[in-house]
Write a structure and sequence with these properties.
Its EC number is 3.1.3.2. Residues 1-22 form the signal peptide. Keywords: Glycoprotein, Hydrolase, Iron, Membrane, Metal-binding, Signal, Transmembrane, Transmembrane helix, Zinc. Helix content is 23%, strand content 24%. By secondary structure, the chain is α+β, with helices and mostly antiparallel strands. The chain has a domain at 156-195 and 268-475: Metallo-dependent phosphatases (Purple Acid Phosphatase, chain A, domain 2), CATH 3.60.21. It has an eight-stranded mixed beta sheet, covered by helices on one side. A six-stranded mixed beta sheet has the order 14-13-12-24-25-26, covered by helices on one side. A hairpin with a 6-residue loop joins strand 4 (88-93) and strand 5. Helix 1 crosses helix 7 and helix 7 runs antiparallel to helix 8. The longest helix is centred in the first third of the chain and has 21 residues, at 4-24. The N and C termini lie far apart (52 Å). Residues 19-27, 454-516 and 541-580 have low confidence and may be disordered. The chain binds fe (ii) ion (FE2). Fe (ii) ion is lined by residues 167, 196, 232-234, 318, 355.
C-alpha cells in the first residue's frame, strides 16, 4: 500500500510538470515578416513637412518638454531665423480670460560653417494640473498659437499614456511613423523619445541645416505634447577634424530639459515624475562608471523613488542592454554591467531603448550573478527584472536592422525588423499595457503587446483551471507592485510566488538556487505553490498578500510579512517591519 502522502506528492509533481510545460510554451518569437533592408531616403528640403512658416522672422521649430519635476511646468522652445525677436510666451488656460506672460532666454551656436538661428527657451511654471493651455510665441502678424494639456497630479493610480519613438530621422518612413503615432486611437499624451533625433550628422560636415528641417518636421506634434528627450549617438556631433570637439553641442543648445529639478548636473541625465510614472533618463555616451557624476546621481535617485506615489519606474537610454540583433550587438554591455543590478534591486518596470533600427521585447530576465569565478553569466528569468524594449524603429535613413542572431536567445520574447512606434498605457498602479504598432498596419492594429505586470500570469492562469479561484489569479498577476504598498495596506493583493518557493527551497537545500537545473526548480516550485494554494482554499481563506523577503521602501529596510483575509473581508494583518 503506497502511503497517501506519496500519492499526493506524485500528483503535485505531475501538476508541476504540466505547469512548466505551459510556462515553456510561452517562449520567444521572431516575426515572420521579412523586410528587405532598403535604405529610406531623407525627405527633400522643399518637402511640405519642412515648410518654413510665413512672415519675417516667424517662430519655427516649436517644441515643448516637461519643465519641472512634477509636471506643472513646461519648457517651450522655438527658433527665430533672422533676429532674436521676442523672448516672451503668452499663455492662458482654456476657459479663462486671464493671459500670462513668461520670458525666456535665447541662445545661438556655431558648428563648422553653420550658424544657428536664435533659439528661444522659456519655462512656464505653476500651471494647473490636467488643464488645457494655449500659448503664443512671436510678435505682430507672425505670432503663432499652439496648445498643450498638462498631466494630472502625480499619484499612484493616475492613468496616463506615453508614446515611444526612437531613431526617428527625417525620411518618408519617419513621416509615416509620426503620422501613425498621431493617428493611433490609443492617443499618447506625452512622447518618450529614446535618442537619435535628426541624423544631421550623417551629412557632410554634420550639416546642421538638417537639424532645422527636423525641428520643423516634428513641430506638428512636439508643439502640442511634451517630448521627453534622451541623447543618442547621433546627438554627440563630436568632429574634431572640422574643429568641433564639444560633444552634444547642437543637441544641448536646441533641446532643453529640466535636469536641475532632479538635482542632476547635466542635461544628458535627469528624471521627472509624470502622472503615476517616474522616468529616469540616462546617457550612454557620458561617463557612467563608478564615482562618475552620472553614477552618483543615478544611484542616489533610484533609491529615492517613492513607489507608493509613482509605482511605475521607467528608464530611458539609447543603446539597449538586451539586444539579439546583429546590429549593435552587445554595445549596451558595459552599461548593463554597471546598472542592471540596480534595475533589479529597485524593480524597474521597463527599460526603453533605441539605437537598433528594429523592434524587440525581452522577457523579464537578469544576468547579475556573475562574479568572475562562478561561471554564472547567462540571463535567467527574474520577476524583479525589467522588461527591455527596443523601439529604435522610427525610420531613419540608415535603414532597418534586419540581421538577427540565431537562434533567438531565451531572453528575447519578440523581435521584428519593421518601422513603427510604441504606446505604454498606464491604467492604474498595477496595470499597464504596452503595444507596438508597425507602420504598415492600420492605426489601431497592435503588432505586439504585453500587459504589465505579467511575471506570474502563465502559472496563475493554469492554477486557476485547477483550483477555480479566479479572484486569486487576478491577485497573482499583480505581484510586482503591491509589495510596495504593504505599509499602507491599500492594495494588499499579491502573492510573491518566487519568494515563497525560494524560501521553501532554500530551507530544504541551503544552496544557491542558480545551480539547480531550471526545469527541476520550476517543477518543485509550482508543486509547492499548488499545494499551498490548495491548503489555503481548504481553509476557506484568501491569502491576499505574502511577502517572504527583505526589501527597501522609503529608505527603510522591511522584512516581509503577510496579510490574510477571510472571505468576508475581515483583515487579519501581520506585517513585519520595518526591520531597521
Ligand atoms: Fe543610435
Amino acid at each position: 500500500m503506497v502511503p497517501k502522502w506519496v500519492c499526493a506528492g506524485f500528483v503535485y509533481l505531475l501538476l508541476g510538470l504540466i505547469l512548466n510545460v505551459a510556462e515553456f510554451c510561452n517562449g520567444g518569437m521572431t516575426s515572420g515578416y521579412q523586410r528587405p533592408n532598403n535604405l529610406s531616403f531623407d525627405m527633400p528640403l522643399d518637402s511640405d513637412v519642412f515648410r518654413v512658416p510665413p512672415g519675417y522672422n516667424a517662430p519655427q521649430q516649436v517644441h515643448i518638454t516637461q519643465g519641472d519635476y512634477e509636471g506643472r511646468g513646461v519648457i517651450i522652445s522655438w527658433i527665430t531665423p533672422d533676429e532674436p525677436g521676442s523672448n516672451t510666451v503668452v499663455y492662458w488656460a482654456e476657459n479663462t480670460e486671464l493671459k500670462n506672460c513668461a520670458d525666456g532666454i535665447v541662445v545661438t551656436y556655431k558648428y563648422f560653417d553653420y550658424t544657428s538661428g536664435f533659439i528661444h527657451h522659456c519655462t512656464i511654471k505653476d500651471l494647473e494640473f490636467d488643464t488645457k493651455y494655449y500659448y503664443e510665441v512671436g510678435i505682430g502678424n507672425t505670432t503663432r498659437q499652439f496648445w498643450f494639456i498638462t498631466p494630472p497630479k502625480v499619484g499612484p493610480d493616475v492613468p496616463y499614456t506615453f508614446g515611444l519613438i526612437g531613431d526617428l530621422g527625417q525620411t518618408y518612413d519617419s513621416n509615416t511613423t509620426l503620422t501613425h503615432y498621431e493617428l493611433n486611437p490609443a492617443k499618447g499624451q506625452a512622447l518618450l523619445f529614446v535618442g537619435d533625433l535628426s541624423y544631421a550628422d550623417d551629412y557632410p560636415f554634420h550639416d546642421n541645416n538638417r537639424w532645422d528641417t527636423w525641428g520643423r518636421f516634428i513641430e506638428r506634434n512636439a508643439a502640442h505634447q511634451p517630448w521627453i528627450w534622451t541623447a543618442g549617438n547621433h546627438e554627440i556631433d563630436f568632429a574634431p577634424a572640422i574643429g568641433e570637439s564639444i560633444p552634444f553641442k547642437p543637441y544641448t543648445h536646441r533641446f532643453f530639459v529640466p535636469y536641475e529639478a532632479s538635482e542632476s548636473t547635466s542635461p544628458l541625465w535627469y528624471s521627472i515624475k509624470r502622472a503615476s510614472a517616474y522616468i529616469i533618463v540616462m546617457s550612454s555616451y557620458s561617463a557612467f562608471g563608478k564615482y562618475t557624476p552620472q553614477y552618483k546621481w543615478f544611484t542616489n535617485k533610484v533609491t529615492e523613488v517613492n513607489r507608493t506615489e509613482t509605482p511605475w519606474l521607467i528608464v530611458l537610454m539609447h543603446p539597449p542592454m538586451y539586444n539579439s540583433y546583429v546590429s549593435h550587438y552587445m554595445e549596451g554591455e558595459t552599461m548593463r554591467v554597471m546598472y542592471e543590478p540596480w534595475f533589479v534591486e529597485y524593480k524597474v518596470d521597463v527599460v526603453f531603448a533605441g539605437h537598433v533600427h528594429a523592434y524587440e521585447r525581452s522577457e523579464r530576465v537578469s544576468n547579475v550573478a556573475y562574479n568572475i569565478i562562478n561561471g554564472l553569466c547567462t540571463p535567467v528569468n527574474n520577476h524583479s527584472a525589467p522588461v527591455y524594449i527596443t523601439i529604435g524603429d522610427g525610420g531613419n535613413q540608415e535603414g532597418l536592422s534586419t540581421a538577427m542572431t540565431q537562434p533567438q536567445p531565451h531572453y528575447s520574447a519578440y523581435r521584428e525588423a519593421s518601422f513603427g512606434h510604441g504606446i505604454f498605457d498606464i491604467k492604474n498602479r498595477t496595470h499597464a499595457y504596452f503595444s507596438w504598432h508597425r507602420n504598415q498596419d492600420g492605426y489601431a492594429i497592435e503588432a505586439d503587446s504585453q500587459r504589465f505586470p505579467t511575471s506570474t500570469e502563465t502559472i496563475g492562469r493554469v492554477l486557476c483551471s485547477f483550483i477555480k479561484i479566479r479572484v486569486s489569479f487576478r491577485f497573482l498577476s499583480n505581484s510586482r507592485h503591491d509589495i510596495f504598498d504593504i505599509k499602507n495596506k491599500t492594495c494588499g493583493i499579491a502573492i510573491e510566488m518566487d519568494f515563497l518557493s525560494m524560501l521553501i527551497l532554500t530551507s530544504f537545500t541551503g544552496k544557491n538556487l542558480e545551480i539547480i537545473p531550471r526545469i527541476l526548480y520550476n517543477m518543485i516550485r509550482n508543486s509547492f505553490l499548488l499545494a499551498f494554494l490548495l491548503i489555503v482554499r481548504l481553509l476557506g481563506l484568501f491569502v491576499l498578500q505574502l511577502n517572504c523577503s527583505c526589501y527597501k521602501m522609503n529608505g527603510l529596510n522591511y522584512r516581509g510579512g503577510f496579510i490574510v483575509r477571510p472571505p468576508k473581508d475581515i483583515a487579519l494583518s501581520a506585517v513585519l517591519g520595518p526591520a531597521s
